[in-house]
Amino acid sequence: MDPDRVVAELVGMGFELSDITDAVEVVGPSIDSAIDYLLDDSRRNTASASTSTACFTSCADMLGKRGSSSSSCYAGKIRQSSINEFIKSESRPKRSKTINKLNMSQSEVFQRDTGGQNVHPPLEDADLHIATEKAISSSYCKDEDIGPDWQTKVKTLLQKHFGFPLLKDFQKDALEAWLSHQDCLVLAATGSGKSLCFQIPALLTGKVVIVISPLISLMHDQCLKLAKHGVSACFLGSGQTDKSVEQKAMAGMYSIIYVCPETILRLIKPLQSLAESRGIALFAVDEVHCVSKWGHDFRPDYRRLSVLRESFSMDTMKFLKFDIPIMALTATATTRVREDILQSLHMSKATKIVLTSFFRPNLRFLVKHSKTSSLASYKKDFHELISIYSRKGKSSSKNKLMSTNLEENSESSDNASNGRMDECNGINEVNVDDVEGYAVSDSDNEVSSPGRYGLDSSKDRQLSVEYLEDECDVVQDVDDLDVSCGEFSGKLPLKGCSGFLLHKTPDLANDPKERAKLRHKPLEDGPTIIYAPTRKETLSISKFLSKFGIKAAAYNAKEHVFRMQNHSCESGVKLPKSHLRQVHKEFHENTLQVIVATIAFGMGIDKLNVRRIIHYGWPQSLEAYYQEAGRAGRDGKVAECVLYANLSRIPTLLPSQRSEEQTKQAYKMLSDCFRYGMNTSCCRAKTIVEYFGEHFLLEKCLVCDICIKGPPERQNLKAEAMIFLQVVSTHCRNFADISYGGYEGRLGERPNIKALVSRIREQEGPVRKHVYQGI
Ligand SMILES: Nc1ncnc2c1ncn2[C@@H]1O[C@H](COP(=O)(O)OP(=O)(O)OP(=O)(O)O)[C@@H](O)[C@H]1O
Ligand SMILES: [Mg+2]
């Protein structure tokens, strides 16, 4: 094997250059023998008696490098040292070409070595030299190169790898915190570019960045993207079947390692070794709201991540000169969640909080009333969507077909409005009550028991919790996507083909004139994501849309994907989970027009041109809603977020395993979301950002349904209120006790709403007269 290649690979694995050259001299150009040699402590100990400190200093001076192992050290160890040490890089001796050549970034090595696909494809010598030369001219910075002009270096890296001219201010702030070894909590809107905050440190230092992330699909997407941008990355999780990826990751062969929280807890020891060898620049905890049980996606294993602080601190690892910084990132955290994050992760008291506005100026928020339960609702609600996509891709005959089908369908509306869909229309039976067995109380702190709101009055509407749990993707599983390959080698984009065009947007955020223009601006082409509460509904809606020629696919966490294209019905087909990957792929390649998904789809998914996010049914919280809605318009162009919900019905909590405390919290969040939907007077964007504790500087967004329509005409409903209160107080004898819990506890029965309503109706005449007299 070519010695250069052996050396390059071993450098990539994190071994020290001087040790490698020793090894290659002794055992020859064989990776295996060199590794054996490097790992054979005793042999190497006898070869040198120098102390690690002495060697560290001298090697550093000699190589212009910050760290080195000594012969008495654990072979290949690179000492973790302060980034500030490298700020003095100016005065370091110039490295010889040979040293540069051998000290190439691991990412660069892999970029060439793997050709973007395989780990060790045969390389011709000439190729290797090209790779090596390329590495020499690479703009990757080594640790020792970070200096006061780091921003210039970052700029170069940004342009080279991502095609962006500048860091955003909040990215700069987060990086500054990391450079001074501070922990950092980054709270920035969906799609604002949080990932870059933890990706840059890997490029800047040559150390590894460990990213804790909740979903395989998210890790997969990010790795794929990084590979396109010339950064080697891999992901590890229980779904990772290729064990060699983990071994290679722990040997320092990837610049960025994505790992799910469950797995990282198992990897603490190997990661400590990695910190000693190649070095760990940063632990990034992405989607960190999952840490908190006050958040919307609580994952118990996220809470156990405090182990990171304990295991990677100076106290535990004596060679560290500072605790390895933790950077926690999310787009949806209320103030309570933020506090919980800081505490749970044991982040330092000096944690820097980088906060940007949660406001997404290019998103138009709308709420529409819909039963969301029947074919009739589908027809009414998706009519526009169907015509948009039909206009785009279909011939006029298809349109004709569509209108014919709509007419046909309307004939069956009786059936549909009963919550059943006619099989001949190709629609599965859907009943909104399938998922309504729980209810939220009006009061924030009140917890209602299952079935409180009369659904159980009709037995056929009642469903078992088992069914519901099977039907809803409530608790997310990390293995949401089956992937056979978890490693991605960096391959720099060709010039002009980065796929990341910068869209210069006008100052949408503040300029009222610009904002007003957005009101009725037609949406550009791009896909739509429809979020439905149950798996069954994802299937029935996608099937419905497919009937009209829309390229739609269902996506849920169950092991099947139901797809229909061009009217070819594949009803009942069960596909393996790996097909979810296919849906992801087609979505990213713009082959699909609509994805109908449960919450299993989307967290952190970064697709620029999603034009519409439709929630078809109540979300479980405003946090979840805003995060899912945030998948829209990431290119900065106008996009729409529509919530279709049954405004005449209290939303229901989807079943999940929760403690009593969590249930209370879940109801509280659901009820906040209900208020958002019911609100008719306050700008939607303002409601949302203020929910996250931000003071909304604009009085209104000018583009949501409420800003456009204005609040409804004010009516004096005092008379009606009086009637209601009088009837209720008569009915319940002691009105002061009419909290639902108190009422039920006292009388052992539920309030009979029907009886109350008919009493109100009966008494309306005389009471009304009485009331009006009193006014
Ligand atoms: N400095 C920058 N200049 C221009 N565009 C950027 C910059 N940084 C990131 N972006 C773009 O922002 C988009 C969103 O990035 P990213 O996925 O990191 O968002 P996010 O904040 O993590 O969102 P989410 O909360 O949804 O996960 C990416 O497509 C990226 O191209
Ligand atoms: Mg993200």
TrEMBL record:
Its EC number is 5.6.2.4. It comes from Solanum pennellii (Tomato). Keywords: ATP-binding, Helicase, Hydrolase, Nucleotide-binding, Nucleus. The keyword Hydrolase applies. Gene3D superfamilies: P-loop containing nucleotide triphosphate hydrolases, Winged helix-like DNA-binding domain superfamily/Winged helix DNA-binding domain. Residues 403-418 have a biased composition (Low complexity). Residues 395-425 are annotated as: Disordered. Residues 504-689 form the Helicase C-terminal domain. This is ATP-dependent DNA helicase. PANTHER family: ATP-DEPENDENT DNA HELICASE Q-LIKE SIM, DNA HELICASE RECQ FAMILY MEMBER. It is found in: Nucleus. Residues 175-351 form the Helicase ATP-binding domain. SUPFAM superfamilies: P-loop containing nucleoside triphosphate hydrolases (SSF52540), UBA-like (SSF46934). It is an enzyme of class 5 (isomerase). It catalyses: ATP + H2O = ADP + phosphate + H(+); Couples ATP hydrolysis with the unwinding of duplex DNA by translocating in the 3'-5' direction. Residues 1-41 form the UBA domain. Belongs to the disease resistance NB-LRR family. InterPro entries: DEAD/DEAH_box_helicase_dom, DNA_helicase_ATP-dep_RecQ, Helicase_ATP-bd, Helicase_C-like, P-loop_NTPase, RecQ_Zn-bd, UBA, UBA-like_sf.
